[in-house]
Amino acid sequence: MTSTLPAWFQARQQAAQKRYEETPTPKRGDEQWRFANIKQLKFDNLSGEAVEADASDLIARSTGLESPVAKFVFINDQVVLTESSLPETVICLSLADALEKHPELVEAHFMKQETRLGSAKYAALHEASVKNGLFIHVPDGVVIEGTIEAHHWISGETTVFPHTLIVTGKSAEVRVIDIFHSAEDTTPGLAIAFNDLCAGQNSSLDYIAIQELNEVSRIISINETSTARDARAKGFILNTGAAWARNESLSRLEGENSRSDMLSVSIPDHVQEYDQRTFQHHVSPSANSDLLYKNTLYGHSKTVFSGLIFVGETAHHTDAYQTCRNLFMSNDCEANSMPGLEINADQVACSHGSTSAQIADEEIFYLQARGIHPTQARQLIARGYSVEAVARLENEEVEDLLMKFIDSKFARIK
Amino acid sequence: MSLKIDNLHATLENGTEILKGVSLEIPAGEIHAIMGPNGSGKSTLSKVIAGHESYIPTAGTVTLDGADISEMSIDERSRAGIFLAFQYPNEVPGVSNANFIRAALQSRLPKGEEIDAVAYYKSLYEKMDLLEMDRKFTARAVNEGFSGGEKKRNEILQMMMLDPKYCVMDETDSGLDIDALKIVAKGVNAMRSPDRGMLLITHYQRLLDYIKPDHVHVMSEGRIVKSGGPELALELEEKGYDFLKEPALA
Fold first, then answer.
1. pLDDT tens across A259-317, in order?
2. Residue-range definition of the domain harbouring residue A99
3. What's the ipTM?
4. Nearest residue of chain A to residue B95 (CA atoms)
5. C-alpha distances in angstroms, A78 versus A96, A154, B117?
6. C-alpha to C-alpha distance for B33 and B202, rounded to whole angstroms
7. Residue A397 within any structural domain of the chain
8. More exposed terminus of chain B, fewer Cβ within 10 Å: N or C?
9. What is the rounded CA–CA span in Å between residue B9 and residue B44?
10. Does the B2-249 domain belong in CATH 3.90.940.20?
11. How far is the alpha carbon of A123 from chain B, nearest alpha carbon, in Å?
């Protein structure tokens, strides 16, 4: 990092480095790593041989929405493209620029919550190593029409630390998509990504992460969301790529009558492993959280879901739901689900559950009886299975984009 | 030109024989009705014609315009021109009606050829109008949250869109009120053609007031035990299925 970084940031990075070194590596038997493949945490072969990538080629391959309201492309955490037609009052900068131009705003919101779902060590490594990312601050009353889109490329056998920090003011609205790609098909990269979502009073914040890394790369992605009074936050994760992905998502419902939707679609194939841990933390009364994770498993793939709804002592009249569903498309895949619920308040409505199923023969029969080949019938049903979570975003343009990535994954499945 | 079923026997996977030698020929241009009590094998016959894999044909043949289809898979039979309207149509969550029918039509085209979207929607809307289906049904997931009557109408919509040579309708009238029955019958009657054969499977004569069959067959215990003209349905309605058991009529 350069010396122009604010002192507070440098101090935090140094402290984080120390914390990283002092925090033990997760091991077998740790509750937060139950069913996890601990071997995936050996990162020593990724010591940072970044490849000098052809930026214009990767910019050309950074396809997403037809016309995002702002677009960023990062290669190994370096900005190579910035386009924006956002109103001037909105701050939408690379994190490096934001640290220089708005250090006080970044400081007020940067990594404020404690990482408690298992990856505290890697959150510390992220904090110590982060060089860049996206900083978005939407002031009070500003509604952004359209979507901000960022592409994060890993090129070479290296580790990236993308960080997305989004802050919405009172009654502001914003929607942001991060897309994680690999520049090469067979080079193992590692991303330790972090997204901080701070939804201000009565604001609306939608965040979508699309992970389509190559199948030898790994990613740890940590999400921390906080919602102020009457705020609405939606977080969506699509996993189609990577050898191994660990998602930790924590929503802290801090304000009364706030709402958090936690959504995910994962389609692992071959020997891909997706390990997802979630925490719906109800602090205030009358808040609502609703989690829906849908996995469609092919080949010898594996998923782990562990979720906790925690209703604090003052969080009366909480509505909290948690559903994880697994659809098995082969006999060799494995899904582990550990839903959890802890209620310490009164008059709450909560439910949690997980299901695992295969497509019934009768369902296939119906589609086949219309002339559809059984392989295609299974894919149509599997595609439809993902739609329920995607449709919760209630934005046609973004839903179409997600279905495009989902279709592209199905097209690769033999 | 006909759909011909000859001495068809079929068992469940556990060996229980359901069809015990059914023979029936439905020439193009004719409507045949099969009536019969519960458990007589009517629905099984429709599924075996469609190629359902839970039933094992043990003897006999099904031929479509002279070609034996016994070795064809379910989807091959559909593309060859057989349509089964289900008694209990499945729900397909997340797949819109429009995309579902489109996928079915697409499966009939050679590789690389695409459906013309404008012509497709024009045709779809025409048929939906005839069946008095709201346009919003195109975007709704197939049969999800549909009422019983809406599901049956949706079956007829699919049948009209796929334009099969032979239609097999399994208890299409069950669960329909009289208004819905009339609409469904209107759709089926619109499909009457000298080039198309139809087989209606029903429990009640009521359907046949609206769709006039050329021939009526009665099925009992896995066999067709009686065949006749439309008057046979009235006789059954009047006397009940028990009259089949009287020796004089056997």
1. 999 999 999 999 999 999 999 999 999 999 999 999 999 999 999 999 999 999 999 99
2. 7-360
3. 0.95
4. A384
5. 9, 10, 43
6. 7
7. no
8. C
9. 11
10. no
11. 37
